[in-house]
Amino acid sequence: MVQIKMHLLVCGGTGCRASESARLVEQLNHHLQLNGLAEEVKVVTTGCFGFCEKGPIVKVIPDNTFYTQVTPEDAEEIVKEHVLKGRKVGRLLYEDPETLEHVSDSKHMEFYQKQVRIALRNCGFIDPENIDEYIVRDGYAALGQVLASDPKETIELIKKSGLRGRGGAGFPTGLKWEIAAGNKADQKYVVCNADEGDPGAFMDRSILEGDPNSIIEAMAICGYCIGATKGLVYIRAEYPLAIRRLEIAIRQAREYGLLGKDILGSGFDFDIELRLGAGAFVCGEETALIHSMEGFRGEPTIKPPFPAQSGYLGKPTNVNNVETFANIPPIILKGWEWFNSIGSEKSKGTKVFALAGKINNVGLIEVPMGTTLREVIFEIGGGIKDGKRFKAVQTGGPSGGCLTEKHLDTPIDYEHLTAAGSMMGSGGMIVMDEDDCMVSVAKFYLEFTVEESCGKCSPCRVGNKRMHETLEKICQGKGTMEDLEYLENLGKVIKDTALCGLGQTSPNPVLSTMNYFRDEYIAHVVDKKCPSGQCKALKSYVIDPAKCIGCTLCSRSCPTNAIIGDKKVPHVIDQSKCIKCGACYEKCKFGAIQIR
Amino acid sequence: MKIELKDSQLRQIKDICDSFNNDPGELITILHRTQSVFGYLPEEVQRAVAHNLGIPVTRVYGVVSFYSFFTMTPKGKYPISLCLGTACYVRGAEDVLDEFKKQLGIEVGGVTPDGKFSLDCLRCVGACGLAPVVMVGEKVYGRLSPSMVKEVLAEYE
Amino acid sequence: MDNKIKLTIDNKPVEVTKGTTVWQAARQVGINIPALCYMNLENLGVENRPGACRICVVEVEGRRNLAPSCSTDCTEGMVVKTNTPRVLNARKTVMELILSDHPQDCLVCPSNGKCELQDLAATLGIREIRKVDNAAVSTYRKDYSYSLKRDMDKCILCRRCESMCNDVQSVGALGAINRGFTSIVAPAFEQNLSDSPCVFCGQCVAVCPTGALTRTDDTGRVFKALADPTKTVVVQAAPAVRAALGEEFGLTPGTSVTGKMAAALRRLGFDKVFDTDFAADLTIMEEGTELLGRIGAFLNGDTSVKLPLLTSCCPAWINFFEQNYPDMLDQPSTAKSPQQMFGAVAKNYLANKMGVKREDLVVVSVMPCIAKKYECTRKEFSKDGNPDVDISISTVELASMIKMANIDFVSLPDEDFDQPLGESTGAGVIFGATGGVMEAAVRTAYEVFTGKTLERLDFKELRGFEGIRTASVDFNGTTVNVCIAHQLGNARKVMDGIRKGELNFHAVEVMACPGGCIGGAGQPYHKGDSSLLKARAQSLYREDANKPLRKSHENPYIVKLYEEFLGQPMSELAHHLLHTHYFDKHHKI
User: Fold this and answer.
1) Could you tell me if A312 and A168 lie in one domain?
2) Within this chain, do residues C250 and C380 fall inside the same structural domain, yes or no?
3) Are residues A216 and A298 in the same domain?
4) Does the pTM of the predicted model rise above 0.80?
5) Chain B residues touching C176 at Cβ < 8 A
6) Which of A476, B49, C335, C446 has the CB geometry, 3.0–4.6 Å to C287, for a possible disulfide?
7) Are A94 and A147 in the same domain?
8) Interface of chain C against chain A, CB under 8 Å?
9) Chain C interface, mutation test: which of A449, A462, A499, most C Cβ atoms within 10 Å?
10) Between B32, B122, B129, which is nearest A15 by CB?
């Protein structure tokens, strides 16, 4: 048997695939073949490395060399230089944005140094389409251990670990299992909520794409603990790759006897089916999710009854999110004390975040609870793009809020984020800089909620629409101080009265920005100005006569003929005709056109 | 617009429903399958599904009109989907969208008169590192700016 | 086990049984928490509790947000506040939101004065509806049919109609469509109700708290006919009307106003005031004979005979039947409904007797029902384009006509109906309540079959509000098994059982509406109070008990009608005028 000397791990996540990582794999294999190395060097398509900003990523094992933004055309050089001659391809190495030096391997990248990977432990290390690679890394060992013990012990262990739901609300997972276990029924269900819908969040997708077996194993463990023999994964139809990898993993697990009848000879039966979502954010709410799985409109219903009492098809159902499940096997293998020792006082373990927006290192990260926002944004995230000033960070997606500079030292956990007026949410983290208008950002989230509201309860259906219209009015420069009062009252009432979690949290982006960026709202309303210049209606372009030389370039580019003036004489913009398209601003070579 | 389904098409729908034991609980999966066959879910198709499952057509329509993934109008030959997730939004996706609208002369949800392009927005595709992102068919274009829109469209001329 | 829970609501101690909601518990101590979407017709299995309107919210100590009282169960030691500033502000704000997407045309709305939304706006003291200038307002195409009108601009998404149409009636014409601000309850593809599987039972109208679903208003057509000197206008009033009409004039529910109603109709200018009860007696003669014929044939070993016989009085049920059970078209009685029997007799017998040409005789019916409006337009019920029944108005429309005509209803004297089509027996009266047709049929069929006189006329086992009731009646040694179902969902259960051969009866009575015709969509709004329906039923049974004649075959004018005109039940002429046939309408579903 030929010994494999080297592994080339190529990221096959959705982001990197969009940048042709699949063709890169082909090319690498092609060049290995040409050089007779196909036997000893193995190219592995893995799940997400997390460093999406610089994708596609190629990682070389054993030396941990971390190549970024690799194109299919680079394959030849990697093979000829690195694989054959042991010389790293310098130009593809990650360049530290501060020192501007090339970093030879991932162990020395600040991006990874602060991270603790539990849920993402296998992402980027194994081939997600090969169950053997999962098994080699202790896969299904936890299931074997659990099946040999009393389910109550496992539930106790999960309770003691302090694991809380990673979908957003943070309900203690062990307690949830205990309740479901306590309800007697002829049939129970385990449901994995993979309807990740927060715009700008892709944690669950990355786990499913990178380590689908961890979810299967955890669901089987859960099934054994609560007495369920059927598992369902409710997954977004927009995630074709995750769906495919899950299907492969389920098939392989069945072949290995890790799903199906009499698993590992324990007498325990468990199998998993997929249910596809169809594009409705509200289906992340567990009652809506269950109705959707039953073939109905995804409208939430009042609780009680809770799914643990009466869920899918009226049977006791335990719903957990992907990341929650991904934490289960390590907790069982390493013990509750280990997990409990990570994190902050009431929030144990780690949290995965999808870091995006105006930040240098867009990507997927996993940090211990209690890590500060500053560490995440400036150390792991590499700070703000293009040297701009940090303005706000949005956590919790449409349910969360915007936090400011003064919150940068807030430890990230359920309690602190809620106290600061945002929430943990499922893990989206969007960074904004000085160019972002906070009123517009609030409006953006509201627009999302309005679109995704199921329409069942009146506060959410009508209230969010009215809030959005009010924000629109403010961005148009037609707002009044009364509108701000109206917004605040509406926001409070919607939180107080809406039927489900979506509605109850939907005013958060507005209320938190009104709280922390009130000046900006007042500027829009009283001064009719948008300080960041993002609101078109509040923007005006004027020509500085001192700088204008009358070259006519601007007037010729103006689509509405709003710029008047003779050659070689300073021009003037007719504000009544100007549509604020910015064409003149782009054209002017003398910096004479200013935005006010 | 009324269409008439051919017998073979009706049989296709029946086969899909049969493969799920005509269980109304599988309605959404059945609609996914049906849409992948027909490209969209016109009234007649929904009626046929309702008929096979033995449920009121109102329920089918209620589901189709609830979920954004289902559509009752045919898409263009090259369906353009622009990501309006937060990451794309803060990196200027709206301006890109405006440019697509301008270039194509259609609104979101519309199809060009020649049936070539249709324009839709979707939530996060998870390629936030490439924001703003647009998909034309299966192909993903990242780090778009309004000035690149013309080039992208030109690839399909 | 102790099943009691103690809690306080607005500082008042309350003790309730487990499973009681906060809303119900509050009622027990005189605290009426307002609600919009919640509706519970107790004992009828009709409940709408989506928790959607959020008007009934209350403060519960220790709870982060407000709780919807309609769907929050009481727990031990719970401390509830229903009227704190926080609650009142929330309730008012939510109400303003609902109103911000609702037309403000109350003055000209058909539900003006009977609208729960309007009442609630008054209760909550809404004086302005804050919203921004660019606020979107939902607008939908109006949908008119013979029976009802849909104006979805006025819909507040309480979903009561959807519950009625699906959970209770199992018709499935209406359902929630779209999402978010554009979500609405509508037929598939937002088509017209007439193109949907709608059977026009009107139970959606009967529960709509606003003016979104209303009855088609035909009072104008009646006034016009009354004012036309070339027309002779006669009227028939159905049994259930007299049990509810008084409610529109502030009389206690269950007050029978038969005499006042006849007086009012006369003052409105009808040339003759007749009684549908007469036609009900006639129905019993025909349907009863048909039943006995089928049972007789069956006992004689005829295996082709179709049993059970299904009643055919209810037009919504007939529509439902034609759509869902086209394979059983020869199962229902071929007897026309009382409304149509009356029409046929009026146009073919009365017109001659009165010396009026068919075209110049206008037959108006007053019905507790709006499906009757559709029924009288069915082609088989007209001759050369002239319908047997020209116009059908509902109880509520009659009340409105009486008010418009400045008639002080309450102080009217009791008057009698005109003859010959105004005489009725108690059997005709009880047609208005579920089980009534069966009881009336049994009274006559028994005596005709056995040749004996019934000792007791009250068949209590056939009465009541249970959705499906069965009974066996001893016809002097022959057991006749009957079944009674009201609400179409229950009818479906019975019919599916019959179709599968699991259920065997000789006769089945079906009424589409809760409690029978007394709960029809043409009746005054019950506002979710089922005790009102019970009072109406009681009123009919009282009237029956007080009648000198209580068996249809004893009605002297019925006897005379057969002698003078029809010959005998099921005669060729009777068959021609009083019987009908059914159509396969499976394509509508």
Assistant:
1) yes
2) yes
3) yes
4) yes
5) 62
6) C335
7) no
8) 49-54, 57, 65-66, 68, 71, 73, 86, 89-90, 93-94, 97-98, 100-101, 130-136, 156-157, 176, 178-183
9) A462
10) B129
C439-458 residues labelled b (16+ CB within 10 A) or e (exposed): bbbbbbbbbbbeeeeeeeee
Q: Are C394 and C522 in contact (CB under 8 A)?
A: yes
Question: Residue C330's domain spans which residues?
Answer: 287-335+427-524+543-588
- pLDDT band per the 50, 70, 90 thresholds, residue B1: low
Contact flag B61-C177 (C-beta cutoff 8 Å): yes
pLDDT per position as a tens digit, C37-72 = 999 998 888 999 999 999 999 999 999 999 999 999
| Confidence class for position A99, pLDDT limits 50, 70, 90 | confident
Residues A271, A148: one domain?
yes
Q: What residue of C is the nearest CA neighbor of B57? A: C188
In a 10 Å sphere around its CB, with 0-12 CB exposed, 13-18 middle and 19+ buried, how is residue A188 labelled? buried
Out of C176, C178, C197, whose CB is closest to B56? C197
Exactly one of C313, C314, C369, C513 is catalytic; which is it?
C313
pLDDT tier, A581 (very low <50, low <70, confident <90, very high otherwise): confident
Q: What mean pLDDT, rounded, does chain A reach?
A: 92
The model's pLDDT over C298-346, given as tens digits with 9 standing for 90+, comes to: 989 898 899 999 999 999 999 999 999 999 999 999 999 999 999 999 9
3-class state of residue B73 by DSSP: coil
In A, which residues are within 8 Å of B61 by CB distance?
none
Residues C105 and C243 in one domain: no
pLDDT at A397: 85
* Local confidence band at B22 (pLDDT 50, 70, 90 cut-offs): very high
Neighbours, chain B (3 or more CB pairs < 8 A): A, C
Is C196's CB within 8 Å of B58's CB? yes
Each residue of A529-570: pLDDT tens digit? 999 888 888 888 889 999 999 999 898 888 888 999 888 889
CA dihedral defined by A359, A361, A364, A365, rounded to 10 degrees? -100
**Structural domain that includes position A163:** 136-339
Chain center to CA of A73:
30
Taking every pair of Cα atoms in chain B, the longest distance, rounded to a whole number of angstroms, is 52
* CB nearest to C188's CB, from B58, B66, B68: B58
With respect to residue A125, please indicate whether it lies within any of the assigned structural domains: no
Q: Which of A376, A403, A433 is the last residue of a domain?
A: A433
A302 lies within 8 A of chain C by CB: yes
For residue B60, give the chain C residue with the closest CA.
Answer: C188
Residues with Cβ < 8 Å from A267, sequence gap 6 or more? Answer: none
Residues A161 and A293 in one domain: yes
Q: Which of A339, A370, A402 is the last residue of a domain?
A: A339
Same domain, C167 and C297: no
Domain count along chain C: 4
Q: Say if residue A34 is in the same domain as residue A77.
A: yes
Tokens representing residue C443 in the block: 């009274």
SS (H, E, C) C363-391: EEEEECCCHHHHHCCCHHHEECCEECCCE
Task: Identify which of B67, B86, B127 has the shortest CB distance to residue A430.
Answer: B86
Question: Residue B46 and residue C188: Cβ atoms within 8 Å?
Answer: yes
Give the count of domains, chain A: 5
Residue from B16, B21, B28, B83 whose CB has the most chain A CBs within 10 Å, to mutate: B28
Residue C375 and residue C266 in one domain: yes
DSSP secondary structure, C274-333, as one string: EEHHHHHHHHHHHHHHHHHHHHHHHHTT-TT---SEE----HHHHHHHHHH-GGGTTSB-
For the record, the structure tokens of C26 come out as 């509050």
Q: What is the pLDDT of residue B12?
A: 96
Taking CA atoms, what residue in C is nearest to A452?
C180
Tell me whether residue C554 is one of the annotated catalytic residues.
no
Shared domain for C304 and C402, answered yes or no, is: no
> Using only C-alpha atoms, what is the Rg of chain C?
25
ipTM of this predicted structure? 0.93
C372 catalytically annotated: yes
Is C423 a known active-site residue? no
State the smallest CA–CA distance between residue B57 and chain C in angstroms: 6
CATH number of the domain where residue C355 is located: 3.40.50.1780
